[in-house]
C-alpha cells in the first residue's frame, strides 16, 4: 500500500470515528439523558396527552435512533467516495 | 366459523407458507447454509433481522410487562432498539468487510488464538440456548391457549416446523422464511392495536392515540390511567418503581447485549456489501420500530381496559366490582390455561383487583371489606388476550395467534442456526477436525441444528422463569462477554490475545456469578433478590453493564503488560476499517 493510500485511510478512519462520536452523544442524550436521568424535570412539560420525559422514554428515543442510523449510513457513503475507499 | 377453526386455519396457512419457502430456498453449500451466500438485499435482510430479533418476548411479553411496569417498562423499549445504533456504527460494517461465517471465527482470527475462538463459542452457545428456551416457552403458550393442545404437544409441533426449514434451508431458508414471518407478525401486532386505539380514542394510529383523549371525554388516556391505577393503590403509570441507576444499568445491558447477540450480528454477514450492512441496520430498526412504538400504546390501553373490565363502578362501593358470575368469556378461557386466576378472598362473589402490597391502601381497602387482591394475571397473556378483552372479531384473535408463533419460530430458527454453525464451523472445522470436507461440514451443521432443537424443546418445557426474564439473562451475558472483545478488535490495534481471553472470561464469570447468586438459575438463590442486597443497587437484569466495563478494563490492563499483537493482525484491523477490498488485503 502506498503512503498516500495509507494517509487517506487514516484520515477516513478519523472522519468515521468523529461521525460515530457525535452520533453516540446524541444517542446518549435522547435515551439516557431525556428518558432516564432528566425524566422528572422533563415530565413537568406536557404536550398533547404526554409528559415529555415519559414520551422520550417510550417513543422519542426510538425515533431519534432511526434518524441517527439513516444519517450515518448516508454520510458514510459520501465519506467512502470522498476518500476513495468505496466498494467498486 | 368458530375461533378454534379460524385459528387452525390461520396458523396452518402460515406454516404451509414457511415450509414452501424452505423447500424453494434449500441450501446447497456451507456458504448458503451459514450466510445465505451473501446475496440478501438490505431491505429483505432488514425484515429478516427484525423478525429474527423480535422474539416471543417482544411479541407476547413486552407490552404486558410495560402495562404492569408503566414507565419502568421503558428499559425494554430503549434497550432493545438503541443497540441497533451501536450495531450500525460500531460492529456490522466492519464484520461484513471481514467477511467470514461466524462471530467466534472473527474473534479467533483477530486475536490469533484458538482458545479465544473456543471461549467465544462457549459464550455464544450459552447465550443462544438461554434465549431459545424463552422462544420455545412462547410457542408452548400460544399453542396451549389457541389450539387447545397441551404444552408438550405444542412444543413438539413448533420444534417440528423449525426442524424442517432450519435443517433444510440453513441461513438461506431461514432468511426468506423470516421475511414472511415478519409480515405475519407485524400485521398481527398492529391490527388489534389499531382497533383498540379506535375504540378508546377514535384515533386509529396507536402512537398518537397513546397521547390522545378518551372518546367522548376531554381526559387524556394517560391521565385517566394514572388516576385509575393510583386509586387502586398502584404507583402512577408514568412514574417508575425502579431506581435511576438500575434503569440506567438495565438499559445499557440490553442495548449492548443487543449489539452483542451472535444471531443478530450474523445477519449482517448475509448482505452483499459493507454499505448494505449499514443501511440494513437502519431498515432493521425501522421494521422493529413499527412494533416497538406500538407496544407502549398497547401496554397502556391493555392496562386501562383490564382495570375498566373489573372495576365497573366507583372504587370502594359495594357493587363497584364485576361479579365473578358475569365475568367475560375471555377470562373463562384464560382461567383454563392457569395463566389467569381468581380467588374470592372476601367471599362477596365479586372480583377485587388492586395493589394489596401497598400498606396504606390496604388499610383503606379493608374498610371496604376487601381482603386482598383476588385476580392474578400473568403478564405474558396481555397481548394475546388483548383482542378478546376489546371484543374484537375472531379473525383478529386467530391472526394474533399466528403472529405469536411467527415471532417465536423466527427467533428460534436464527438462534438454532448460530448454535449449529458454532458447533460445525467453529468447533469441528475450526478446532477439532479441520480436515473435513464441505459436504461433511454441511451434514454436521444439519445434525447440530437437529440436536439443538431437541435441547431447546426440553428447556422450553422446563423453563427457568417467564419469557422476558429468561431472555434478559442472554443480554447480560452477550453484553459482558462478546460485545467488548469484538468492539476492541475493530477499534484498537493494541488489544491482544491474552487481554481478550481474560476480558471475556472475567465479564462472563462475573455476570453469570451475579445472576446465579441472586436468581439461582439452576440452584436455589444464595442471596435474597432485593434492592438492598444488590451491588450499587443494580439488579441482576442490569448487571451485564458492569460486566461489560469489567471486560474492557481487564482486557486493557492485561494487553498493556503482555506482548503486542503481531504485524499481520494490525494489518487485518486496518483492512476491516475500510470498505474497499484492496489487493494488499488478499
TrEMBL record, chain A:
Sodium symporter small subunit domain segment(s): 10-86
InterPro entries hit by this protein: Na_symporter_ssu
Transmembrane segments: 20-40, 52-74
Keywords: Membrane, Transmembrane, Transmembrane helix
Protein name: DUF4212 domain-containing protein
Automatic annotation (TrEMBL), chain B:
Major localization class: membrane
Localization of this protein: Membrane
GO MF term (any one): transmembrane transporter activity
GO cellular component terms attached to this protein's record: plasma membrane
Keywords: Membrane, Transmembrane, Transmembrane helix, Transport
Positions of transmembrane segments: 6-25, 46-69, 75-95, 116-134, 146-167, 179-200, 247-269, 281-302, 395-419, 440-460, 466-487, 499-518, 538-558
PROSITE patterns according to UniProt: NA_SOLUT_SYMP_3 (PS50283)
Entry membrane topology: Multi-pass membrane protein
InterPro entries per the UniProt record, alphabetical: Na/Glc_symporter_sf, Na/solute_symporter, Na/solute_symporter_VC_2705, Sodium:Solute_Symporter
UniProt record similarity statement: Belongs to the sodium:solute symporter (SSF) (TC 2.A.21) family.
NCBIfam families (UniProt xref): Na_symport_lg
Entry protein name: Cation acetate symporter
Lineage, top ranks: Bacteria, Pseudomonadati, Pseudomonadota, Alphaproteobacteria, Rhodospirillales
